Structure formats: C-alpha cells, structure tokens
Amino acid sequence: MDVTNFVTAxxxxxxxxxxxxxxxxxxxxxxxxxxxxxxxxxxxSFILPNxxxxxxxxxxxxxQAMESSNEIIITDIDNFPNIKLLIDTIxxxxxxxxxxxxxxxxxxxxxxxxSVKFDIPPLSSREEDVQELIEVFVKxxxxxxxxxxxxxxxxxxxxxxxxxxxxxxxxxISYLLQDIDDKELMDIIENYLFDxxxxxSDYRNYLxxxxxPLIRAGLTKFKSQLQLSDRLGLNRNTLRKKISDNKxxxxxxxxx
Length: 256
Known about the structure:
The chain has helices spanning 11-24, 40-47, 59-68, 83-93, 127-145, 164-177, 182-194, 202-206, 208-222, 225-232, 236-245, and strands at 30-33, 52-55, 71-75, 96-101, 116-119. The chain is α/β, with parallel strands linked by helices. It has a five-stranded parallel sheet with strand order 2-3-4-1-5, with helices on both faces. α4 links the parallel β3 and β4. α10 (225-232) packs across α11 (236-245). It is elongated, with a radius of gyration of 24 Å. The chain starts with 10 loop residues before the first helix and ends in an 11-residue tail after the last helix. InterPro entries: P-loop_NTPase. This is Fis family transcriptional regulator.
C-alpha cells in the first residue's frame, strides 16, 4: 500500500500515525508490531522515506546493507536468525533502524536498540478504517479496470483474514466481477478447471463450484432453507444434504 494510503479513521490508527509522525522528526530506532496487512511497512516507509527496506530473512544482504547505509527498514525482523548479532551490528555501524515484526514477537535484546515499540491492531478491531480502505481500493480498481466509481457494499462481507491484503484482493475481484456476464463467468470456471480435470470422479468433485454459490446466494436472498428449496424445486431433505456435504464452505449458512 502506498504511504499516503495509511488510513486514520479509527482511534487506534490515528494514534499509530501520530507516533510515526513524531518518529519522523527524531533519530531513534523503532519497532512496529502487528499482523500482516495492518500497515506496518507503510508507516515504516513514512518514517524513513529514503531508506532501503530488507526482509529479516535476507541475512547476508541485511548485514551488508548496514555497512553502507545510515538508515534502513527491516521488515519481519523476527525472521532474522540471530537477533543479538543483528543488534550488535546496528550499534557498531550506528545505523538508524525502523523495523517491523509480528505482534507476538519478543526478544531479550530488543530493548537494547529500540527506544520506541508500538502496535498496530488488526483491521477486525478498526471498523472505521475498513470502510475507508474499501473506498481507497475501489478507486484503485477504477484506475486499474476502468468503469464507473461504483461498488455495492450492501451485502459485502469484508474478508479481513489477512487484513488489508485480503480486503484489497476481495474488493478488486468483487469490483471486476460485479458486471460480469454468463459467458465471462463460464470462461473463468473453464480456465480454473482445465488443469485440474483428469480423474473419473471429477464431476462429483467439482460440483460444489456450482452448488455452494447457488446455496449461499439463495439463503442470503430468501432467508430460509424452506423458501430456497421451494424456489430451487428441491426436496428440503435434499437441500439439507447438499448443505451438509458442503459444510466446509457453508459454515453459518444453515438457515432453517
């Protein structure tokens, strides 16, 4: 996500941005913690806009960079295999560091180098940010795919499993598919299935690709299994069996 797209609609994100703004004017090291997709890298780049960003898993590259740079962003510092060595190298080379890590990451040597540590909460606890991010991602979709700046969020259930990463992907796909026609949809399914077909039970194995969205849409629209079975022309027990067979994809959809 672009640095300018770090949203501050919620109290939590607003406080995180205030901390980042303060750090921008100081010369101290900081550790930003949180889940993937919450904006850690965005804030790190805001604090050190001219710094090279290197993942903690790139052991040799990271150590070499600290010999030639006076400031650096270390993403996923928890991936570095020897934190003490890393801390000693930072001290020896007098490099200013802003690092990111998982929220649960802890190490006895962290306090030796990071004067400031702060968390960015997941999007699931930042409802105001979710709505604003959806608007940002819709604008991105308009630029990428064209069309009108419209997106129906009436029945939209944000996918926050990977925070902004999953939400952006979901918005992009939903925007692209909202005006899809039958042929385009069938082409997508055909391309998906082409390399997967090959056994003598493929019809049964892939029937869920039709049944699951049909049942989901029907239960959302008609609110009950009784109504849906009537509209689909199915016996209610048959519908119940199909819901049970596809329970992996229909959790919470057992409307009576």
